[in-house]
Amino acid sequence: MRTAIVTDSTAYIPEDVRNQNNIHMIPLSVVFGNESYKEEAEIKAADFYEMMRTQKELPKTTQPSTGMFVELFEKLAKDYDAVISIHLSSGISGTYQGAVTAGEMVEGIKVYAFDSESSCMIQGFYALEAAKLANEGVEPDAIMKRLNELKAKSRAYFMVDDLTNLQKGGRLSGASALIGGLLQVKPVLHFVDTKIVPFEKIRTKKKALARITELFTEDAKKGTPLRACVIHANREEEAKKWLAELEEQFPNVEFTLSYFGPVIGTHLGEGAFGLGWMPQ
User: Fold this and answer.
1) DSSP 8-state class, residue 253
2) Which domains does the chain have, with CATH numbers?
3) Sign of the dihedral defined by the CA atoms of residues 135, 136, 138, 144, in that order
4) Rounded to two decimals, what is the model's pTM?
5) Hey, which residues does 86 pair with through a beta bridge?
6) Can you tell me the distance from the alpha carbon of 78 to that of 59, in angstroms, rounded to the nearest whole number?
7) Which helix (H) or strand (E) holds 19?
8) Which residues of the chain have pLDDT under 70?
9) Is the dihedral of CA 164, 166, 168, 173 positive or negative?
10) What is the model's pLDDT at position 168?
11) Which of 153, 155, 206, 254 is the most buried (most CB within 10 A)?
C-alpha cells in the first residue's frame, strides 16, 4: 500500500526538507485588510513581521477550504492508496476538521487525519516520522499508532512577549490575558486538551526561558533519545544562542532551529520563543 503524507503550512518544515521526504503541504493564509497571502508560498516569516509593524489592526488567519483538501486528496488518489494528514491543534484551528470532512468526500483513497494537538515544528516532527515510516512501507494504521505513541510523550512550552495578540485572536481567555498584562509577566504556555493555556506565570523573559529549559532537562536526563526544536518569532540570533547552549548541555539530543511563521506569529506576536521535544 502506498501512503502519502500531508501536513499544513504551520508545521514550518523547510521546502527542501518537505521535498526530500515527499511531504505534501496545504497552506493556511493570513489576511491583511483585503489582501490574503498563503503562508510559506506567498509570504515568508520575515516579510510578515515587517508588515505587522506597520498595521494598526491584527491580521486575520484563515484555514484551507474543504475544497482545497478535496482537490489535493483527489490528486493523491491517482498514485496512492491512503493519505495521513497531519495538522495543527483542533483547539486553535478548524484545519484538522477540514481534512476529516474532505476525507469523507473523496473516493479511491483512505484518509487518516491526525490532530497533532500542537503546531510548528513539533507538528513537523510527526510529519517527518510518518514520511519515514511510509517510505519503509509501514501500513497506515501502524503509522497512526506510532504517531499517537509519540504524542503521549511529546512536550512543548512557549512564552510570548505580549499577550495582546492571543487575547484578540481568541486563542487565550481574556481573563488570562488581563492578569498577565497587569502583572507584566512573561507567561509560559502550553497545550492542554488541544487548547493554549498558561502553564506558569513568570516575571521576566530570562526566567521564562530558564524555566522551559528546566522542564526540558527533566526529560532529557531520563536517557531516552530525543529530538527537539527551538522556535522563535523573528528573533533568530537570540534563538541561535539558546540553541547553542542547549546543544552544548545535551550533546545526545537532535536539535533543530525553527520559527513561528505568519499564521502562528499572528497570534503569538513578535518576540515569542518555544521549545518542543519528543522521543526519536
Assistant:
1) S
2) 3-28+63-152 (3.40.50.10170), 155-279 (3.30.1180.10)
3) negative
4) 0.93
5) 7, 114
6) 37
7) helix 15-20
8) 163-184
9) negative
10) 61
11) 155
Strands, E assignment, the chain? 3-8, 23-26, 29-32, 35-38, 60-62, 82-87, 110-115, 155-159, 188-192, 195-200, 226-232, 254-259, 273-279
* pLDDT at residue 51, rounded to an integer: 93
Contacts 24+ apart (CB under 8 A), 161-164: 161/186, 161/205, 161/269, 161/270, 161/271, 161/272, 162/269, 162/271, 163/187, 164/269
Helix, strand, or coil here: 63?
A: coil
What cell does 124 get?
513537523
DSSP single-letter state for residue 64: P
Sequence-distant (6+) residues with CB within 8 A of 117 are: 89, 90, 91, 151, 191, 193, 194
Q: Hey, what amino acid is at 30?
A: V
Torsion, Cα 157 160 164 165, to 10 degrees, reads: -70
One-letter-per-residue 3-state SS of 139-201: CHHHHHHHHHHHHHHCEEEEECCCCHHHHHCCCCCHHHHHHHHHHCCCCEEEEECCEEEEEEC
Cβ-proximal residues to 168 (8 Å cutoff; 6+ apart), any chain: 58
Pairing type for strands 155-159 and 188-192 reads: antiparallel
- Nine-digit cell at 28? 493556511
Which are the contacts of 85, defined by CB distance < 8 A and separation ≥ 6?
6, 7, 69, 99, 103, 111, 112, 113, 114
Tell me, what DSSP letter sits at residue 80? Answer: -
What is the pLDDT at residue 35? 94
Q: Which three cell numbers stand for residue 176?
A: 488570562
**How far is the C-alpha of 105 from the C-alpha of 90, rounded, in Å?**
20
Look up residue 39 and give its DSSP letter.
B
Rg (alpha carbons) of the chain, rounded to whole number: 18
